Amino acid sequence: MFAVRNCRFFITFTNLKVTTRNPENVFSLGLWQRSLSIQQYENPAGNNDMPIKMDNPYKEPPKTCILCGVTVDYKNIQLLSQFVSPHTGRIYGRHITGLCGKKQKEVSKAIKRAHHMGFMPVTLKEPAFLKDPNVCDIKYPE
Amino acid sequence: LSHAKYNLTSSLFFQLETAAALRRTVETLMGKGAVVRSLENMGEKTLPYKISKHNLRHTRGGYFLVDFSASPTIIPSMLDHLERDIDVIRPTILKKLPQKTQEECPGLVPPDHEGKSFSKRK
Questions:
Q1: What kind of architecture, by CATH, is found in domain B4-95?
Q2: Phi and psi of A77, rounded to 5°?
Q3: Is the ipTM of this complex over 0.85?
Q4: What is the pLDDT of residues A4-21, one digit of tens each?
Q5: Which residues of A touch B61 (CB under 8 A)?
């Protein structure tokens, strides 16, 4: 009964038991009764003030990887070289590139194809592309 | 076209006598019944790594892209012919896949741990 005043649940519970008209209890009783009535209230006039159902207008667009909407081609070695280590020429993993599954696979396949067809060097990164902007999240560059 | 079901792209690079070699390649293709749609020159560049072919070590080459339609039966013989050509350093014949529409990308979907393939028990 001590901190009961601040707890809504306990207020309703105590109100059911209250019979005596203490000044404290009268106040809480009135609030509870009013809130009940508001819930059951329906506007007879007809103008609907209830919230309209719509999907979240503040919804963020779905997070995409950086290659979303970009075609990956084995001939475009500049793009492919961005996902390759500059020191060893190894292809970076998914946790480094941050690409989605599909795109990572496409890039990987394209790089291997470019290696085999003689478009892209294997053990290093093409020197002309070393100054390209870094896209990958490398913590400790190998 | 009745026989042509594939769109094939062949990338190969030549030594420095390109015109005659190109002509030979395209003529062989047409002789085997392929329809050559386009021939692109991707420039003459230093090779990404030195390639040894036909008893020679190559450092520079011209890249060419031949876009053609053909029936799949001629591909092995075509590849064999290209391998035997002294001027061709590295022939490749790839099937040209239909361009996928890019709008289907769902974006980065968080992994579904309650899927059927992943059982939390065991």
A1: 2-Layer Sandwich (3.30)
A2: -75, -20
A3: no
A4: 454 444 444 444 444 455
A5: 118
Structure confidence at residue A136 as a pLDDT band (50, 70, 90)? confident
Q: Which residues of chain B have pLDDT under 70?
A: 1-12, 15-16, 101-106, 111-120, 122
Fill in the amino acid letter for B62.
G
Which tokens go with A81? Answer: 């070289």
In the numeric block, the tokens 């490749």 are attached to B92
Q: What is the enclosing helix (H) or strand (E) of B11?
A: strand B6-14
Q: How far is CA A125 from the centre of its chain?
A: 34
Nearest-by-CA chain A residue for B97 = A73
Closest chain B CA to residue A101: B108
Contact yes or no for B92 and A122 at CB 8 A: no
| Domain edges within chain B | 4-95
Q: How many CB atoms lie within 10 A of CB B69?
A: 17
